[in-house]
Amino acid sequence: MTVLLEVTSLRTEFATRAGLVRAVDGVSLQVRRGECLGVVGESGSGKSVTFASVMGLVRSPGKVVAGTIFFDGRDLRQLSPEEMRAIRGRDIAMTMQDALTALNPALSVGEQMAEVMVAHDETLPAGRAARRAAIRERSVEMLGLVGIPSPDTRLRQYPHEFSGGMRQRIMIAIALTCRPKLLITDEPTTALDVTIQAQVLELISDIRARLGMAVVLITHDLGVVAEHCDRVMVMYAGQVVEEGPTSAVIGQPRHPYTRGLLASIPRPALRGHRIEPIMGQVPDLVGLPPQCRFHSRCPLARPECLVEVPMLPAGPGRQARCLRLEEPA
Amino acid sequence: MSLGKLLERIIQLIPVLLGVSLIVFVMMALTPGDPVQIMVGEQSITPEQEAELRRNLGLDRPMVERFFIFLAHAVQFDFGNSFYHGRPVADVIAERLPATIELSLVALIVALATAIPLGVVAAIRKNSVLDRMATVGSLLGVSLPGFWFGILLIMLFAVHMQVLPVSGRIGYDNEVAAVTGFLLIDTLLAGDIGAFGDALRHLLLPAITLGLPMTAILMRVTRSSMLEVMRQDYVTFAEAKGLPRRRVLYRHALKNALIPTVSVAAIETGSLLGGNMIVETVFGWPGLGRLVVESIFLRNYPLIQAAVLLYAVTYVLLNFLADILYTVLNPRVKL
Ligand SMILES: Nc1ncnc2c1ncn2[C@@H]1O[C@H](COP(=O)(O)OP(=O)(O)OP(=O)(O)O)[C@@H](O)[C@H]1O
Ligand code: SF4
Ligand SMILES: [Mg+2]
Question: How far, in Å, is the centroid of ligand 2 from the Cα of A47?
């Protein structure tokens, strides 16, 4: 599989009153064509900001200050706003973390589906009526695909007339309309109850297999990662701390933080294990000293850890940011 | 919004309007001084004449009865006679009303047409020079007294530069037959483009003066609601879809940002009524506002009462309209 997205040494900062927040600090990652990459980490670890940076959607006072973002052979940071716009929604699509606020309350669902085709689809017929018919047909098809019942009558409705789960699926349908090469999906299941969660994830996996689309799945749920992702990347305080094939990382976590996460998350596969919440808090991202960021919470911490720790090889296809990888858990 | 719901809301208006009428009535009744004495003033009249006047005004009856008579007459637009004009109050008001409505509507249009683009640009270019200028300008706009600003405009454009007329609705040589009472329409009906332009030139300064505070308020509302909306997830999602920037700004952001603007505009239109009295006086505008000011000096009670009631009812109806607009624009809100 060839590499579709390759991010190198990405740094994104927010200028706040409290100081410069390094929300993303030297993140490197790869997504291969058709693969699913899971991204996990505590709240505030920089998952959303990392991929907002990839999309070129970091808002002021935030700014991508360093790094390269190669997608399909082009460095997205070098593109003009117009070139970037053409890629968004067509080649890289994204769903938002909160489905309830991601759809515009003042526009019908049909319009919100149609506009993405109008913006990107050059294959639409030229005539007005034919164009409308084609858009409508495709909208109905997409809504049907994500399991919205009687889609043709529901296109006229507004977001508030749909349940949370349906809005989530509409958002996914919109994201998939132009058959993107990469779908970035941020917590696609948090707002949903368990059965619908499973349905939505099945749906994404299903479409991924059919379209050969790559997926970045941002989640708090390691169980979801175990089930759906080829590889997983663990983030902590703006950095990647561990990365590798899902089964290996979850089966034998090497970084103390990953171990802590696995211990803290209840999962059927881990039933019988003690659930140990990680003690302490994520460090303040303002003015961090150049040292292992997990130091203050790490059960294995030693004075020699107070140095800048690089990503180190941690097994076949794996890396972790820890000096004591060889130590047993 | 269904027709049934609309009807329900209209029915709900009835007690409000009754209450408003009661307040207007009581206010007039409780105004210190005997209306007959005040109206008569220095003139000497016989006691018989005075009793006659009192009876004509219905002042000899009990208060409650007077209120119901007032109400029964009011719903038929019967507000008695204006002594000064020697004609029914309703006729005098009807004659002056189009001038005021025309001025208010043009002021509203001027306000919306400047406030919305300015507010949007100020929000998009937050903290730019233009944004700061607009903020300072709107602060001045709400705090400058209307008459002062009006006189300033007159001095600049009418006296100093002499490009716009000082007062009145239209030049004497451009008078046209009154059909609707709205000069912008009547001049066009008469096919007189020159007169239309003249009427428009007469409208410009008073409309700007009248609309200034509203422009300032609407600009601030538009700016802040636009800023608020641009932070919303659905705007980020619209951008993530790769929509053209224009579409993101105007279709996604502005459509939502205008909901408060339109509601505030409808409510603020009521406050134009108050501004009318000052602006019409400064610009010699022959409308209702000036009529009311004149009537106050002449102690023309029936006319004042009718005008105050008209203002109050208009205000209530505009608020009702604001409500309806808000609902129509905002599909989430169900009546
Ligand atoms: N607008 C902003 N202003 C200042 N700091 C911000 C802003 N947005 C994000 N940050 C900083 O970036 C850090 C990472 O945020 P991000 O949203 O990427 O976290 P996350 O991993 O997605 O968390 P969650 O799981 O809660 O979604 C936050 O801790 C915060 O300090
Ligand atoms: S480097 Fe040291 S402090 Fe950091 S995670 Fe590894 S053992 Fe813990
Ligand atoms: Mg997030």
Answer: 21
> pTM, whole model, 2 decimals?
0.83
What is the ipTM score, two decimals?
0.90
The pick from A241, A295, A302, A319 for probing ligand 2's pocket by mutation, whose C-beta has the most ligand atoms within 8 angstroms, reads: A295
DSSP state of B177: -
Residue A239's beta-bridge partner residues?
A236
Residue A64 Cα, ligand 1 centroid: separation in angstroms?
Answer: 14
Share of chain B above pLDDT 70, in %: 96
pLDDT for residue B176 is more than 90: no
Min Cα distance B88 → chain A (Å) is 49
Question: How many Å apart are CA A144 and CA A139, to the nearest integer?
Answer: 8
Judge if the upstream peptide bond of residue A268 is cis by omega within 30 degrees of 0: no
Give the relative orientation of helices B301-329 and B89-124 as an angle to the nearest 10 degrees. 40
Q: What is the pLDDT of residue A266?
A: 60
Spatial separation of the C-alpha atoms in residues B271 and B269, rounded to whole Å? 5
The closest residue, in CA terms, to atom 1 on ligand 2 is A322
In this complex, is the C-beta atom of A167 within 8 Å of any C-beta atom belonging to chain B? no
Q: Is residue A36 in contact with ligand 1, taking CB distance under 6 Å?
A: no
What is the nearest CA distance from A308 to chain B, expressed in angstroms?
Answer: 35
Q: For B279-304, what is the mean pLDDT?
A: 89
Write the DSSP assignment of A82-99 as a string of letters.
HHHHHHBTTTEEEE-S-H
Contact A99, A171 (CB under 8 A): yes
- Mean pLDDT per block of 10 residues along chain A (329 residues) reads 92 92 94 95 92 94 95 94 95 90 93 94 85 93 89 92 89 92 88 75 87 92 89 95 94 91 65 57 79 89 89 92 74
Longest dimension (CA), chain B: 85
Residues of chain B positioned with their CB less than 8 A from the CB of A58: none
Quickly count: other Cβ atoms within 10 Å of residue B326's Cβ.
16
pLDDT score of B335: 43
